[in-house]
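Memo to structure team: turn this sequence into structure tokens by end of day. - J.P.
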Amino acid sequence: MPKLKTRSAAKKRFTFTASGKLKRNYAFKRHNLRKRSQSMKRKARGTTILKKSDFQTIKNFLPYNN
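Reply from structure team:
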């Protein structure tokens, strides 16, 4: 059986936690921050865990990291 390819975009954006969940960065934090509220910028610090519905899609892009 041939090897499966990992999606490069997914490889750069997501990492697995020790318990097998996917970790991601928040969106909309690169530019035009003057338009964003302070509370939004505060909430968007750091990382968060991917939702279960999105996890089902993304885990197929990372076949050898499960």
